[in-house]
Amino acid sequence: MPFPGQTRLLISPHMKGAAHFISPGLCEFEEMAFVSHFLRPADWFVDVGANVGAYTLLASGVAGAKTLAIEPSPSTYQYLLRNIRLNDLAEKVTPLNAALGRAEGRTRLTDGLGTENYVSPGGNPSEGIEVRVSSLDSVSQDRRPKLIKIDVEGFETEVIAGAERTLHELTLEAMIIERAGNASRYGYDEAALHRLVQDHAFIPCAYSVADRSLKRLGPDDAGNIIYVRDIESAEKRLRTATAFTFRGSSI
C-alpha cells in the first residue's frame, strides 16, 4: 500500500486489522501525523508494539529519525522486517522480536490476531505461543528516545513498570500510549496509569493537525493519548516540521 512520502507498507490482506491500513491508510491520523511532524533525523523513536511497522515507517521513512522497533509476534515481526527492507531503512531501524514488561523473562502471547495480539493473562500455557520478555530500560541501552509509542493491548502498565530510568531521561519529550480499556484483562486501572504518567511531568494532549496545535485532555479521555513534557516546546517543533504528502495531499 502507498504510505506517506515515498514509503510503502506491505501487509497481508488476511491479517486481522489490515483494513485499517488499506482504508483510510493513516488509521490513527492525528497520532500518525504527530509522529511525522514531531521527530527529526537526529532523534530516536521507540515503537513498542510495532506490529508490521506503520509508525516505524513514519518515524524513519518520513521524518528520518532512528527507530527501535519492538514486536513480540514472530509472524508479525517477519512483516516488520520486510517493511524495513522494502523501504531501505536498515540503517535507521533496529528491530527487536520481544515483548516488553517489568523484567526479563518469558510469557505467552496470542497468535493469529494480527493487530490485536496480546500477552496472555497469567501466561496461560494453553494459549498462544511463548515469547521473550525484556524491559524498556534494558533494550533502550544508550539510546535516549525523544518519543515513545506504546500500543500493547492493555499491557502498557507492565511496559511502564520496566521503564523507570527511561521515563526520567529529560531527552524523552513525548509519549503516545493507548488507553482503550484493555488493561482490565490484567486487573489494571488505566486511570491509575494515566495519573502515573502525569506524575512523571507529562501533560495529556490531543493533536490538531490542521493548525499543528496541542489541546490538553482531561482525566477521562481515552484513545491514543499524546503526552508531552512542554506544550509550547512541542508545538514549536510541530509547526516547524516539513509537511509530508499522502494521497495527493500535503499534511
Task: Name the features.
251 residues; alpha/beta; Rossmann fold; 8-stranded mixed sheet; 3-stranded mixed sheet; 9 helices; 28% helix
Description:
- The chain is an alpha/beta fold and 251 residues long.
- It has a single domain (28-241), classed as Vaccinia Virus protein VP39 (Rossmann fold), CATH 3.40.50.
- The protein has nine helices and 13 strands.
- The strands form three sheets. It has an eight-stranded mixed beta sheet. Strands 4-6-5 form a three-stranded mixed beta sheet.
- Strand 12 and strand 13 form a beta hairpin.
- The protein starts with 18 loop residues before the first helix and ends with a strand.
- The mean pLDDT is 95.
> N- to C-terminal separation?
18 Å
Q: Outline the biggest β-sheet.
A: 8 strands, mixed
Please state roughly what percent of the residues sit in beta strands, choosing from under 5%, 5-15%, 15-25%, 25-35%, 35-45% or over 45%. Answer: 15-25%
Count of helix runs: 9
Taking all Cα atoms into account, the compactness measure Rg is: 17 Å
